[in-house]
Amino acid sequence: MATGKINVSVDNIFPLIKKFLYSDHEIFLRELISNATDATLKLKHLTSIGEAKVEYGNPIIEIKVDKEGKKLHIIDQGLGMTEEEVKKYINEVAFSGAEEFLDKYKDAEKDAGIIGHFGLGFYSSFMVADKVEIITKSYKDEPAVHWSCDGSPEFSLKKGKKEERGTEIILHIAEDSTEFLEDNRISELLRKYNKFMPIPIKFGTRTETLPKPEDAKEDDPAPTQEVDNFVNNPNPAWTKQPTELEDKDYKEFYRELYPMQFEEPLFHIHLNVDYPFNLTGILYFPKLTNDLNIQKDRIQLYQNQVFVTDNVEGIVPEFLTMLRGVIDSPDIPLNVSRSYLQADGAVKKISSYITRKVADKLNSLFKNDREEFEKKWNDIKIVIEYGMLSEDKFFEKAEKFALYPTVDGNYYTFEELQEKVKANQTDKDEKLILLYASNQEEQHSYIEAAKAKGYEVLLLDSPIISHLMQKLETSKEKLSFARVDADHLDNLIKKEDTQISKLSDEEKEKLKTNLEEVIEDKKYTVQLESMDSDASPFIITEPEFMRRMKEMQQTGGGG
Ligand code: ADP
Ligand code: MG
């Protein structure tokens, strides 16, 4: 038996860990399972290169709750540690074993899948335990070691009783953390953080229903058996090559990610890059309603298949946070503030890579099957329009595929639209006037009046469209949007107005005055020019700028 002092500069680091390190105490389990996974993958790697002459087999990680003993066990069948290694890796807090491992084998097989750093790792167990034991036996032929520490910098080290290779971590759960002795709580954590980790994780057993035997009577209960309960899928879709997957696999994975989500995604984007940073993932375009606020199923960020967060703000451009799916990258610095993240060079590159991939995917969908793209437009336009508003790079790309639907159900790109209307819809200063409606029913008579004059009327009804129109107007010369019921219509009459009114000018003027008296509100204008079309006897308009001001106040800033 030996005792020693953990080499830390602060006299007692543990209360600090407990208080300040993580606001989220629950992540201790993620850290310990990550270590168990690391240890197993390292052994896999060592056996594969012939360095470890042992059978790798089919190792699993097991989590056990001992409610009476107030203990939580995390058991792996990985490479284990020798006494020297415990002293080195566990006691020298600042020293990172993974780093040394990487250093030593950096030329070997690159994708051995070593888990990256989350911070203090193993020591996060002191957030929930007032005593921690490690019983470990290395794959090397050396006796097992038993390390134990009660939360002060002193530890004890003795020979351990362990026959099988691997490591068992025993947490003596503290009085204020007994929630972690509840099966439900542990299940919840495993579901949250470990659902896609690469080594099978066993937690208890579950009852499996077997098929009834042939000769069973009708009300005989089906036979059951207790089987090991594995909580994870070690080979999630995003770790595979796109060529290995079919459309149905992507849909299946979507359901796996969001079990409560019954609506199918519209399409997916498989992300896969290893230079200049490492990133894999699958993003899905969900069917989005006009409501920007409701979103509980969010993009999940993983690091080598370990769940990190579903708040990807700062990593993914804001407009893409409306998408769903996963991003997995060891190159995203964790445990740093969001403002730091946003300034980080690697993160910036990741963000623009994702933006580019999304734009490229949309562009290819548009080019390869325009009809299908048009059908989906209503469901995806919010993301695209929001992206055009907030990211200039995306704006440039999206100009090729962003669509402007008309009230008649045609879809034009901006270029096509321009071509289509330039002869007919310019004002006296050669400014292109794009007419649009935001509500086909309410603005029916205005739409009909405009159509009667041969104008194209767009149907633009997204909540942020007024911001986007503003942006288009400022980024393009000589362009103006005008809602069909806006006063702009007056300035637009380039084409000969062939209709002859049945009313005399005098009668018209009188009618107009009468109507204006009735309406009172001075911000509206009465126009009689469509008097003789079948649509409406007259129309009442509100200035475009006033209407847009109101709308932008409603949807808030942006743009
Ligand atoms: P990190 O995982 O970032 O290296 P940790 O504090 O989580 O930091 O772990 C420190 C070191 O302790 C690991 O690098 C590893 O060498 C060793 N270690 C921890 N858990 C295990 C385990 N279950 N099996 C083998 N070694 C382990
Ligand atoms: Mg670790």
Description:
- The chain has 559 residues and is of the alpha+beta class.
- The chain contains 15 helices and 21 strands.
- It is elongated.
- Adenosine-5'-diphosphate (ADP) is lined by residues 31, 35-36, 38-39, 76, 78, 80-81, 89-90, 96-98, 117, 121-123, 167.
Structural class: alpha+beta
Low-confidence stretches: 94-102, 104-118, 493-500
The coarse overall form would be elongated
Radius of gyration: 33 Å
Helix content: 25-40%
Largest sheet: 9 strands, mixed
Strand order of the largest sheet: 1-6-5-4-7-3-2-8-9
Task: State the distance separating the first and last CA atoms.
Answer: 68 Å
Question: What integer is the average pLDDT?
Answer: 83
Number of helices: 15
The share of residues in extended strands comes to 15-25%
Organism: Ulvibacterium marinum
Binding site for ATP: 31, 35, 76, 81, 96-97, 167, 338
GO molecular function, one term: ATP-dependent protein folding chaperone
Protein name: Molecular chaperone HtpG
